[in-house]
Amino acid sequence: PGTLMVLALLSPWGSAGGSCPPRCVCASNILSCSQAALSLVPSPLPRFTAVLDLSHNNVSRLRADWAPGRLAHLHALLLSHNGLSFVSTEAFAHVPHLRHLDLSSNRLRALEENLFSDLAELEVLLLYNNEISAVDRTAFDNLGRLRKLYLGQNRIARFPLELLRDGSRLPQLALLDLSANRLRSLPVGELQALPAWLRDRLYLHDNPLACDCPLFQLVARGRRRRLSAVMDFQEELRCSLPAVPAPVGILALAGRQPLNCSEAREAVLEAHLGDAVTLGCDTRLRGVRSRHWVTPGGERVAEEGGNGSAALLANGSLQLRALRPEDAGTYACWVAGPLLNETLYVELVVHNFTLHGPHDTLNTAYTTLVGCILSVVLVLIYLYLTPCRCCCCRGADKPPAPRDDSINSSVLSATPNHATGVPGEPCRSRSASATSPGQNGRFKVGGTPQPPPRHGPKAQRKVSDPDSVSSVFSDTPIVV
User: Are residues 237 and 118 in the same domain?
Assistant: First the structure.
């Protein structure tokens, strides 16, 4: 009995933390009530619950009082397959630290105003396989950490992509699934204005889209970049043509009547704050009937001259003056020809500094580099060109110095080619003075005096010992 009491006190499911609800399985801080035929959320819920699985039940309404107390540790709530048709706008007030919310495979029809605004830490939101047809503009307000939003298999005819354009509503969103909905047209200009990391993970397959060239170019661009949203669902990316009963593949529109679409071309241009740049629209089409530009913000520039910082030139190029950080993004030049239409994309990268600003950073780096080079030169001079510490040179007939003195003098001695010593010059031993040009004087460890110098072509040659201590340093010129 004493052991059981100790285990009960150590377990989170003791009397102080609460008991495991009926028909549920509890392990550590995980509470699983899946497939328990529940019509209401069990109450009370233990306050330390971190993962709550209520999937595959009959909880059709999630009211504001489903969690009477604050569940500060709950980070995952699973409510899929419940026939859920109503969620109160205050349903998540007691779970502020929720990071994963699964509401998939239910009967939700609309996302109401400020529905998820209490979930400031939410990262993954699953809403696929519902009956959602209306999405309020404020439904995703305050979701600053949301990374993945799944809205596939619903009835959405229009999703407010303008909420994502400037990146202020959902700044970290990296995946948006709108597949298998009722989208008939796509605002390609708004899609091009989306951040690159979101634009490349936008799933749009299985929608009854109307065929046009901008749609083809959008999908063809994804195929060229090998994006999974296009490569994995090429068969499901279809659209409808007038007078054609069955949908056709979007990628099959290249050169097909009556659209005759061609793939868009892309270019990348880099500039700096305050610069003036010109984006060229070098189309391959002849007999161009009209052309216009679309900015990353979705604004159309079609009149020559223009206003503000963007101006359309007579040759069809777009001139941007006094670049700002918000001018960065993808610009599209739409060209209409007699037979084909063409789109050219220009990715403008605006670096957040000017080329004409202060050069303090450059000057500091240059000064540091020069200082390092001078330090290396001084060290080399000290190692190889330091004079001997003797007052006068030895005479020609003086016997060689002892072994230790010869070693010390030959290791750090200079090697000018003079037969005899000159006062004021570095001191050299006989073995050093007899050395041939370009070779360091070497002292044989045995200490045996060298024979007197001979005359003739071989007079300057001298047998050197590879094991000599003086061979550590060389007189080879050093290039810095």
Answer: yes
Query: pLDDT digits over 2-29, tens only?
Result: 333 333 334 454 444 568 888 899 998 9
Burial class (CB in 10 A: 0-12, 13-18, 19+), 98: buried
State the amino acid at position 141 in one-letter form. Answer: D
pLDDT in tens, 368-401: 788 888 888 888 888 877 665 554 445 445 455 4
List all residues 6 or more positions away from 299 whose beta carbon is below 8 Å from its beta carbon: 310
More confident residue, 18 or 456: 18
The continuous run of DSSP H or E covering 222 comes out as: helix 213-224
User: Do 170 and 276 fall into the same domain?
Assistant: no
Going by C-alpha positions, the residue among 339, 42, 51, 296 that lies closest to residue 194 is: 296
Residues 104 and 130: beta-carbon distance below 8 Å: yes
Give Cβ neighbours of residue 40 (< 8 Å, ≥ 6 apart): 59, 66
Range of the domain at 318: 269-351
Confidence tier at 35 by pLDDT (50, 70, 90): very high
The CA R_g of the chain, rounded to the nearest whole Å, is 40
